Amino acid sequence: MGKVSYKKLRGSQNLRQRLLLATLSATPVQVEDIRANDMMPGLRPHEVSLLRLLEKISDDCVVKINETGTKFQYKPGIVMGGRHLVHDCGVSRAIGYFLEPLVVLGLFSKKPLSIRLKGITNDSKDPCVDTFRSATLPLLKQFGVPSEGLELKIESRGVPPHGGGEVLLSVPIIQSLTAVTWIDEGMVKRIRGVTFSTRVSSQFENTMIHAARGIFNRLLPDVHIFTDHKAGQQAGNSPGYGISLVAETTSGCFITADTAVSYARADDGGMEGEKQELVPAEDVGFVVSSLCIMPPRCFKDSCRKASNPWNRNTKAHQGFFGC
User: Fold this and answer.
1) Residues 231-249, buried b or exposed e (16+ Cβ, 10 A)?
2) 3-state DSSP call for residue 220?
3) Which strands make up the sheet holding 62-65, listed edge to edge?
4) The pTM is what?
5) DSSP annotation of 217
6) Contact of 275 with 258, CB cutoff 8 Å
7) Residue 18: pLDDT above 70?
8) Considering Cα of 135, then 225, then 242, then 84, what sign does the dihedral take?
9) Alpha-carbon distances of 30 from 50, 55, 66, 69, 182, rounded to whole Å
10) Rounded to whole angstroms, how far apart are CA atoms 283 and 265?
């Protein structure tokens, strides 16, 4: 066998996209200077977990990480897919961080993909699993992905800091994608959403729905927000609550906003076991519903911060696919 020629890259920017494109194009990459000047240099736990996930769904994939984690080599293999796979995503980032590149790779695998992901289903950093199911999967259908076999099942929920959620992702294989020209966002014609609560009173959900309807009912009549209260093992390991909203437009575009309220992770600046004051459920419903009806051109960091009185716990989803 000949010597492997690696394409050299620097830094940790857009790491998921780099790994996705390297895998699809079968291009070995070597990434250097990963946070080399930070107080905590090297790959983060969720980035290492993503590399291990790529190993799990691929055949003949090779990952080599140096001792400090500031450099790694990634030689992609053949994406095989497969059924009954299981991966623990950890609690550094939510499952949505892994779902976005995983669903693309699953489309081009040798076999249909069925994988169980464990970890955090809802947080304030990544798109929650409800948003992914309500917006990302229908978006893929616009590119010719069949609805048969494309499914995300939420079996239990988990929020920071300890997670405990589980989802089951199923992705069919395709031969090619259909090109799409899509420049008109259209006008909002209906709004769907879901609230959730884990290890807290279900009254939090009713309060969020009441606040959201206070905005939506003045604009359009077709609004349905469902509740999903979890208890027992399906409620994960930490208390929390949140909401996911999807506004569908006349052109088939999906405008989404979601958030989850829970106690902070230790790496988010909180102390393990420290009881912080949580954002009131009424404010959650009001702010997220306001973000959901923003024009898509205003979904930028500056606009989100200006309209976000918390400065941290709400996001309008652009995510992996962007705009």
Assistant:
1) eeebbbbbbbbbbbbbbbb
2) coil
3) 7-10, 29-32, 72-75, 62-65
4) 0.88
5) T
6) no
7) yes
8) negative
9) 16, 16, 11, 12, 35
10) 22
**Rounded distance, CA 120 to CA 102, Å?**
16
Scanning the structure block, which residue is given the tokens 């959730």?
196
Distance of alpha carbon 31 from alpha carbon 28, whole angstroms = 10
- Three-state secondary structure along 128-166? CHHHHHHHHHHHHHCCCCCCCCCEEEEEECCECCCECEE
Using the 8-state DSSP alphabet, how is residue 267 labeled? G
> Hey, is 19 helix, strand or coil?
helix
CA angle 69, 73, 78 (to 5 degrees): 130
Distance CA 244, CA 259 (A): 7
Phi-psi region of 77 (alpha: psi -120 to 50; beta: other; left: phi over 0): beta
pLDDT tens digit sequence for 226-245? 999 999 999 999 999 999 99
CA 38, distance to chain mean position in Å, is: 26
Q: Interhelix angle for 15-24 vs 45-57, to 10°?
A: 20
- Give the Cα separation of 27 and 16 in Å (integer): 14
Helix or strand holding residue 63 (H, E): strand 62-65
Tokens of 25: 């194009």
Statement: residue 43 has pLDDT above 70: yes
Instruction: Judge whether residue 36 has pLDDT over 50.
Output: yes
Q: Which of 55, 11, 61 is nearest to 31 (CA)?
A: 11
Return the closest-CA partner of residue 186 out of 247, 258, 103.
247
pLDDT computed for residue 321 by the predictor = 43
DSSP string, 66-81: -TTSS-EEEE--EE--
**d(C-alpha 89, C-alpha 269), whole Å:** 21
Amino acid 300: pLDDT: 33
Determine contact, residues 156/178, Cβ cutoff 8 Å.
no
Cβ-based burial of 124 (10 A; exposed 0-12, middle 13-18, buried ≥19) = buried
Residue labelled with tokens 């052109």: 251
For residue 228, what is the DSSP state?
E
* pLDDT at position 273 over 80: no
Q: Give the residue-averaged pLDDT of 128-132.
A: 96
